[in-house]
Specification:
By secondary structure, the protein is of the alpha/beta class. The protein has two domains: about 1-180 and about 220-240, Rossmann fold, CATH 3.40.50.720; about 180-215 and about 245-275 and about 300-325, UDP-galactose 4-epimerase, domain 1 (Alpha-Beta Complex), CATH 3.90.25.10. It is built from twelve helices and 13 strands. It has helices at about 10-25, 65-70, 85-90, 95-115, 150-170, 190-200, 220-235, 250-260, 285-290, 300-315, 315-320, 325-335, and strands at about 1-5, 30-35, 55, 75-80, 120-125, 175-180, 180, 205-210, 215, 215-220, 240, 250, 270. Helix 4 packs parallel to helix 5 (about 150-170). The radius of gyration is 19 Å and the shape is globular. The structure holds nicotinamide-adenine-dinucleotide and thymidine-5'-diphosphate. Thymidine-5'-diphosphate binds next to helix 6 and strand 8.
Length: about 325
């Protein structure tokens, strides 16, 4: 089987490539990545010489640049490539429109032309907007798309084009909507790696607004196994929610868990100006994928502990990042702290 992973040098894509090659060693996994700020080939250094892992530097928003890959008779496309950070969509939204919408459109067009057997769109629970903090509701496959920022709006737009290709051109597509991931290789702009690495640098953890916002946290390898199952057993034309089984947890409660592991007290949290349009709560009902036989393997406390361990053992990886492009982003979002 020939699998094309887009955005494979990023957080989830790189974990997915490792996951897939370990589970299906006879498959060939092509990775096309434009190596934007979050793309890091160090995430794949251990397999760079593997003939089953060809890497192609390419931008999915440029049709001609990626067409040659499709001539290699690709069976499955898994589209991870994206601009993925909400805060950046507030100050650089055009990058989101270009990659998340036009990039996905190009991949769909090429997948149709070259008769790809399955196109899987990796999406997010953020496309459904947010829930009130006291709500008992959960997002499900039947919830209407109602995105609230340009990250989620571009991911929702991409999904709609995926659905259009399935309906109009009969491209065999599936979509998955996953909650927040944690684990190795996550660019330290996102809350969990930012918190761990800030503490290691002797800096406080910036908490937006009241810190009462709620997210659902899943280990990245649980996300990978869920995508695998949807590709292999999911119904064509449908979507699947992917979520965790831990109790509802606020950002403050999550950070307290990290602080406890790192033997620090609550003074290491610093409340800062809220994010514009900050979604209050995400929660997902993943009973549909459960019926296919999936459930998360990692408990929340284990996922957090493993993630803290990884960043503690891989200082070189994140220190290089934090001293580069990251600084500009940090100053834009948090000021000169
Ligand atoms: P990431 O930002 O770590 O990685 C994105 C990758 O895409 C990078 O390697 C980047 O270089 C590449 N890329 C960006 N623009 C590109 C372009 N034009 N052409 C080719 N490559 C390009 O993101 P991530 O956290 O790994 O997320 C991967 C996917 O999963 C995204 O589609 C995201 O919406 C989705 N998702 C993420 C989460 C999460 O918690 N991180 C949860 C649910 C869904
Ligand atoms: P993030 O990791 O950016 O993921 P998303 O916004 O896509 O869910 O943020 C997770 C939560 O943490 C979200 O409620 C915003 C909050 N947050 C902070 O409080 N401080 C921060 O510095 C960051 C980056 C996020």
């Amino acid at each position: 089987m020939k699998v094309l992973v887009t955005g494979g040098a990023g957080f989830i894509g790189s974990n997915f490539i490792h996951y897939w090659l370990k589970k299906y060693p006879k498959d060939q996994v092509f990775n096309v990545d434009a190596l934007k700020y979050a793309g890091n080939l160090e995430n794949l250094k251990d397999i760079e010489a593997d003939p089953n892992y060809p890497f192609i530097k390419g931008d999915i928003s440029k049709y001609d640049e990626i067409e040659p890959i499709f001539k290699k008779e690709i069976d499955i496309v898994v589209n991870f490539a994206a601009q993925s950070h909400v805060d950046r969509s507030l100050y650089d939204p055009y990058e989101f429109i270009t990659t998340n919408i036009i990039g996905t459109k190009n991949l769909l067009e090429l997948s149709t032309r070259y008769k790809v057997k399955k196109f899987h769109q990796v999406s997010t629970d953020e496309v459904f907007g947010d829930l009130a903090l006291n709500s008992k509701d959960k997002f499900s496959e039947r919830t209407l798309l109602k995105p609230s920022n340009e990250y989620s709006a571009t991911k929702a737009s991409a999904e709609m084009i995926v659905m259009a290709y399935n309906f109009t051109y009969k491209l065999p597509t599936t979509i998955s909507n996953c909650t927040n991931n944690i684990g190795p290789n996550q660019y330290p702009e996102k809350l969990v790696p930012l918190a761990i690495t800030n503490i290691m640098e002797g800096k406080k953890v910036p908490i937006y607004g009241s810190g009462k916002n709620v997210r659902d946290w899943l280990h990245v390898l649980d996300h990978c196994s869920a995508i695998d199952l949807v590709i292999k057993a999911g119904k064509v034309g449908e979507r699947y929610m992917i979520g965790s089984d831990h109790e509802e947890i606020s950002n403050i409660q999550l950070i307290k868990k990290i602080l406890k592991i790192m033997k620090k007290d609550g003074d290491w949290m610093e409340f800062v100006t809220d994010r514009l349009g900050h979604d209050r709560k995400y929660a997902v009902d993943w009973s549909k994928i459960k019926k296919l036989g999936w459930k998360p393997k990692y408990k929340l406390d284990d996922s957090i502990r493993l993630t803290v361990d990884w960043y503690m053992k891989n200082e070189d990886w994140w220190k290089k990042i934090k001293s580069g492009e990251f600084r500009k982003h940090y100053e834009k979002v948090y000021g000169n702290r």
